[in-house]
Amino acid sequence: MNIFLTEILGLDLEFAQEEACKIEHAVSDKTIEKLYEFIDRPEKCPHGYKINLK
C-alpha cells in the first residue's frame, strides 16, 4: 500500500504510512491483492522490508 501511495499518488512516506494503515484495515484482501498487482508486485516496501501478503 505504501508503494502505491508514495510512487503513484506522490504522498510523502510518513503520511503514506499513516494512510496505508487506515486503508489496509478498511478494504478487503482482494482489493489489496489488486493494488499489489497494479504496482507490478514489488518485493520490498519503501522502508526496504520484504512484502508478504499471506
List the helices and strands and how they pair.
Elements: H1 2-8, H2 13-24, H3 29-38
Pfam families: Fe_dep_repr_C
Protein name: Iron dependent repressor, metal binding and dimerization domain
InterPro entries: DtxR_MntR_Metal-Reg, Fe_dep_repressor, Fe_dep_repressor_sf
Mind explaining what this structure looks like?
With 54 residues, the protein is mainly α. It has a single domain, classed as Orthogonal Bundle (Arc Repressor Mutant, subunit A), CATH 1.10.10. Helix content is 54%, strand content 0%. It contains three helices and no strands. The protein has helices spanning 2-8, 13-24, 29-38. The longest helix has 12 residues, at 13-24. The protein is globular, with a radius of gyration of 10 Å. The two termini are 14 Å apart. The mean pLDDT is 92. InterPro entries: DtxR_MntR_Metal-Reg, Fe_dep_repressor, Fe_dep_repressor_sf.
Gist?
The protein is an all-alpha fold and 54 residues long.
The average pLDDT is: 92
The description of the largest β-sheet is:
none
Beta-strand percentage range: under 5%
At CATH's second level, what is the architecture? Orthogonal Bundle
How many distinct beta strands? 0
In N-to-C order, the SSE pattern is HHH
The count of helical stretches stands at: 3
The CATH topology annotation reads as Arc Repressor Mutant, subunit A
Could you give the distance between the termini?
14 Å
SS-based class: mainly alpha
**CATH H-level superfamily:** Winged helix-like DNA-binding domain superfamily/Winged helix DNA-binding domain
Which regions contain 5 or more consecutive residues with pLDDT less than 50?
A: none
Helix % is 40-55%
Number of domains: 1
The CATH class: Mainly Alpha
Inertia-based shape: globular
Taking all Cα atoms into account, the compactness measure Rg is 10 Å
